[in-house]
Amino acid sequence: MAPWRFSLTNTAPVAGVNNVTSTFVGTLQGSNTMGTITVGAGGQLPSGRPIIWDVTLGAVTMAAAPAVRVNGYRQNYVAAQASELLRPSVSMRPGTQLGQAVDWWLIAAANGNYFHFDLASSTWQAGIAVTYTGPLSSIPIAQLPYARLPSGAYDIYFGFDTVPDGVLTLQSAVYESVHLTVP
User: Given pLDDT bands bounded at 50, 70 and 90, which one contains residue 147?
Assistant: First the structure.
């Protein structure tokens, strides 16, 4: 297939200089774009000379993005009181890894103790164990069961590793964490 050729032109203020003509001329072939960007193509810059860049843009890829929240917060969360109901939730944008076989993990760490979310029983259990092994997929915000936790500082991790063997492989792990403090 022959490359598609394009020529784009715009006139706008640039660095305080009005009516500066900028162009982007190039080709698009498959998912690659190559061309030349010229600012001041009509000699409008103070020096009278344009600024020129040759650019090559490859395919746009989007990395997977796990997210974990407590009561809707993705940052540090401090419970108002020890009896506060805590609602963890997770979401996943798989990006270009959609469908790849992975180990999914949802782990809480507190004072040297570890807990994992068991998907089959929808409960937190002691120790580190895989939550699910299967294809990476899109998860809109999924609310997990409410939790009452004893006083302490917790780090909750949600993500996956790309070695689907039921063992946490940190070298290939992609995750997000949230810090939670219960008074």
Answer: confident
